[in-house]
Design a protein that fits this description.
The chain has one domain (4-158): Four Helix Bundle (Hemerythrin (Met), subunit A), CATH 1.20.120. It contains 6 helices and no strands. The protein has helices at 4-7, 10-42, 49-88, 91-101, 106-123, 126-154. Helix 2 (10-42) runs antiparallel to helix 3, helix 2 (10-42) runs antiparallel to helix 6 and helix 5 (106-123) packs antiparallel against helix 6. The longest helix has 40 residues, at 49-88. The radius of gyration is 19 Å and the shape is elongated.
Length: 159
């Protein structure tokens, strides 16, 4: 039996279940963005405006869902985890939780991506678009790593 089973209120268990559900939805959005970006990256010609708009919409949806997720974590999940950690007296988890609370730089890469796409649209420089795709794919990688870290650190506490 894991020590947190004795100190986890049902509210925290429900929050951790929600974490898992939201992480799966965000991962699905990440995969959509990555797939479409990879298609555009393979193309021999710069994408047309419809493709750029589609990728921007996918990226905005991903960014919005991740921002909403992070706000919920800060408001609900992390305070519940802090309480459980304090009850269990687990100093390792205090550090791990602090690392999660720092947030994720993925959104920064999404903004860099859009900046490069804007440059491409203004100056018609294909290199700007492809550089932006690299930023976007890095942002996706960072978001996935953050979600995996959350699951690795927090989800073992619900079983």
């Amino acid at each position: 039996m894991y020590v947190y089973q004795e100190v986890l209120p049902s509210e925290l268990s429900q929050a951790l279940e929600r974490l898992l559900d939201e992480n799966e939805k965000i991962k699905s959005n990440v995969m959509k963005v990555e797939r479409f970006a990879a298609e555009l990256q393979k193309g021999s010609n710069p994408p047309d405006i419809d493709q750029i708009i589609k990728l921007k919409c996918l990226t905005d949806a991903l960014s919005q869902s991740f921002e909403t997720h992070e706000r919920w974590e800060a408001k609900v999940l992390f305070p519940l985890m802090k309480e459980a950690i304090s009850r269990a007296g687990d100093p390792y988890m205090h550090t791990s939780l602090w690392m999660l609370e720092k947030g994720n730089p993925g959104d920064q890469y999404f903004r860099l991506y859009w900046g490069q796409v804007s440059t491409y649209l203004e100056k018609l420089q294909p290199d700007s678009f492809y550089k932006g795709l690299k930023y976007l794919l890095n942002g996706c990688r960072l978001v996935k790593e953050q979600l995996e870290l959350e699951e690795e650190l927090l989800l073992p506490h619900i079983h």
